[in-house]
Amino acid sequence: MRNTSPSRRWTLSPASHSAAEIEAEWHRMAERLKPYAGQTIDTIVVSGNDRTRRQTIVREMATRQGAPLAPELVKRDAAYLRGMGFFSDVDISASSTTPGSCRVDVLIVERPGLF
Predict the structure, then answer these.
(1) 108: how many CB neighbours lie within 10 A of its CB?
(2) Do β-strands 87-96 and 40-47 pair in parallel, antiparallel, or remain unpaired?
(3) Does residue 114 register a pLDDT over 60?
(4) Domains present along the chain, CATH in parentheses
(5) Contact (CB, 8 A) for 5 and 36
(6) How far is residue 115's CA from residue 105's CA, in Å, rounded to a whole number?
(7) By the 8 A CB rule, do 47 and 106 touch?
(8) Please, which domain of life does this record's source organism belong to (predicted)?
């Protein structure tokens, strides 16, 4: 089971980005999600996953379909997925679907040669 407490520390080991660059990127992601904060998540769409099953990715996220969108939680989800070591990039965005609800898009880039 995943620890979703705010005090959790993330281990980052990206090949091409410094930890400061990644933190800045995740901060921008959280800022982009703020307009959707509190909206009910209708669906979570995962793309870029050729080898990793969608349900495996969604299972590792604390963000859930039917729950209100929380930008800081989504930011932690992106950090967690990236820190797993299977993905070289993770981007999470949202878009409105109906009034009061949104769709969450998870775009991942799998690391080559791990499987």
Answers:
(1) 22
(2) unpaired
(3) no
(4) 19-110 (3.10.20.310)
(5) no
(6) 24
(7) yes
(8) Bacteria
- What whole-number distance in Å separates Cα of residue 10 and Cα of residue 84? 9
Residues 40 and 102 sit within 8 Å (Cβ to Cβ) = yes
pLDDT tens for each residue of 37-53:
999 999 999 999 999 99
Amino acid identity, residue 81?
L
Paired with 103 in beta bridges are: 43, 95
The answer to whether 63 and 73 are in contact (CB under 8 A) is yes
| Rounded Cα distance, 8 and 90, in Å | 19
Residue-wise DSSP of the chain: -----TTPPPP---SSS-HHHHHHHHHHHHHHHGGGTT-EEEEEEEES-SSS-HHHHHHT-S--TTSBP-HHHHHHHHHHHHHTSSEEEEEEEEEE-STTEEEEEEEEEEPTT--
Does pLDDT of 30 surpass 90? Answer: no
